[in-house]
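Hey team,

Filing this mostly as a record. A colleague (T.K.) asked me to run one chain through the structure pipeline before their review meeting, and I want the input and output archived in the tracker in case anyone asks later how it was produced. No errors, nothing strange. Just documentation.

Input sequence:
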Amino acid sequence: MEDKKELIKQKIAVLNEAARAYYTESREIMSNFEYDKLYDELTALEEETGIILSSSPTQNVGYETLSSLPKERHPARMLSLNKTKSVDELAAFAGSHKCLLSWKMDGLTIVLTYRGGKLFKAVTRGNGEEGEVITNNARVFANLPVKIEFGGELILRGEATISYSEFERINEMLPETDAEYKNPRNLCSGSVRQLNNKITAERNVMFRAFTLVSAGPAPAGETGADAPAPDFGNSREKQQLWLKDQGFDIVDYIVVTGENMAQGVQKFADEISGNDMPSDGLVLVYDDIEFGRSLGTTAKAPRDSIAFKWSDEIRETKLIEIEWSASRTGLINPIAVFEPVELEGTTVSRASVHNVSIMKDLKLGLGDSIEVYKANMIIPQIERNLTGSGTAEIPDKCPVCGGETEIRGESGVETLYCLNPECPAKKIKSFSLFVSRDAMNIEGLSEQTIEKLLGLGFVREPADFFRLERYREGIESMEGFGEKSFENLQKAAEKARSTNAARVLYSLGISGIGVANAKVISKACGGDMAKIRTLTKEELLEIDGIGGVMADSVVSFFADEENCRKLDDLLAEIKIEKETNNAEQIFAGMTFVITGSLQHFENREELKEEIEARGGKAAGSVSKKTDFLINNDVNSGSAKNKKAQELGVPIVAEDEFMEKFGIPGRR
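Output structure:
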């Protein structure tokens, strides 16, 4: 059954890639005959196994908008787990009993009910007693079976999550004012609870089962009322394997006892840096179901399981200052700057405080003694304030322009904004994006230099970066500049004049349009900027990966006369090269991960472009879908190498990759 399930996933991936190529990229990677044959094979497998995934091309997903999410009480209160940071305590809990040790996923807990082989209901955990009904959204989770083989009533629990790599991709598309989306968990929570499930579908939410609550006959009078209950042999592991056979992805686990607990915990610890799915610890549960039930519960927690939280390396340090970082949307975020400390093998001296509410809760003040750590061993955070002076001031003037600021409260979160529409910070950030490597790629323009050019009135709009000759004398006299510096800047600008439509579109800073989205839109329009700027919302929605929010942003941007005037000025200064890609699509359907330094390419972005030009995909982390990991240090003990070895992904050096596929270097 497992082999057939994997075969289903493989066929879905190939068919979806073929459809995407045909409908959005105007290219064929397989004939109609091949597509139909593969489609029929998928249909036969779905009928044979009873497993139909929501991403299957055999399913016509109907998107629906609700006015609200109804609430529903759980039949029994969902308890929290007791927690420990001690491996010895975990070992003592397990004793000689067989236990399952698994990731504690950091997402949103969902309770699913299936009846008659179909998804009947999905409810969030909520406060443990009452949750929200999100059945409409669960149907579009990227990997959730909408049909399973078991025909009775199945109730299970699992975690909805968004991976780190997807979080980075989606975060590019979201307006910067979405301050609540500061990590994958918050983004997932917001995505799962959308009223329009088309937005949920665009967020690539994944579901992983961790507990089978019950499996037996459906209620009387309903389909599956006579279905026999499966025999799990009193084993939670057998329950998990059965769920896997039904088509669910389950949370990764290993079997342990108290004797090998330390090794088991270490195995997960070694995988943290390469784990793309957010987690905040581990969960240990007895395999013996009846034994676990016999232990009962406390008022707050079951006694058959326990959560393990990583013992964070905490260091005490002194808060030096609160930096206020202004963005191009006017949002001003506090950043804690403290005396440098060593954490998890690296030196850290800064941590985002995220917003005014958190700063107030921590009662921060300059000179305070604070404790810092790396959340999940990755992200620097302030654990607590030992002094709690609360003397840090919230600026009533923008630190960049001196304009008035305003504290805004939304969903219980206070954030600080600059009210000055002409704030240089907004322009500095916008111009920094404009000249960045993925945009117009004008080298040598730091934020400090841009700030000087703005302050002297040499740059007022994007096109001015290509008109700097007018101000040669003034620029050469700027602090840190001279004749040579100006010539280098001019050369960089001249080089950047020849570009493509995707770079121009991204450089405009349209809300929600990141690098990947700009490339997709450009490709759909054949690299024609004139066509891009006249796209209707309906035409944008037909482009794979472009949703309603992004479509509205693009249409609104080009409907603004001032935006169009500035774009016309820019287009008069640059030359947009026609996008021609005659490269053989040898990497169609293949995924590569690039890590480490390169010898034949200027940087990883150049190699990524070579891969994408040949139909491939360059991902940020190693997974089962990765075909090759490119790393010149093939024998290193890096997290990506370890992950690749564990999954059987080939690790190739740059030379071997180039020779194997006939790829030329760029330097």
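Quick notes for T.K.: The chain has six domains: 2-53, 71-308, 315-418, 424-496, 501-576, 591-661. The longest strand covers residues 331-343.
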